[in-house]
Amino acid sequence: MQSLLLGIDGGGTHCRGRLTDSAGRVLAEATGGPANVWSQFDGAIQAVENVIDELFLQAGLAAEVRDRTTLVAGLAGVNVASVHARLQSWQPRSQARYLFTDVEIACAGAHAGAPGAVFIVGTGSQGAAWDGVQFTLLGGWGFALSDDGSGAILGRRARRLALLAQEGIVPASPLTDRIMALHQHSPEQMLIWSQQATPADWGRVVPEIFATAQQGDEHAVALLQQTAAEIEQMVQPLLARSHGKLALMGGLAVPIQPWLSAAIVAQLVPPQEDALSGALRLASQFSQQPA
Amino acid sequence: MQSLLLGIDGGGTHCRGRLTDSAGRVLAEATGGPANVWSQFDGAIQAVENVIDELFLQAGLAAEVRDRTTLVAGLAGVNVASVHARLQSWQPRSQARYLFTDVEIACAGAHAGAPGAVFIVGTGSQGAAWDGVQFTLLGGWGFALSDDGSGAILGRRARRLALLAQEGIVPASPLTDRIMALHQHSPEQMLIWSQQATPADWGRVVPEIFATAQQGDEHAVALLQQTAAEIEQMVQPLLARSHGKLALMGGLAVPIQPWLSAAIVAQLVPPQEDALSGALRLASQFSQQPA
Question: With an 8 Å Cβ cutoff, are A146 and B168 in contact?
Answer without folding.
Answer: no
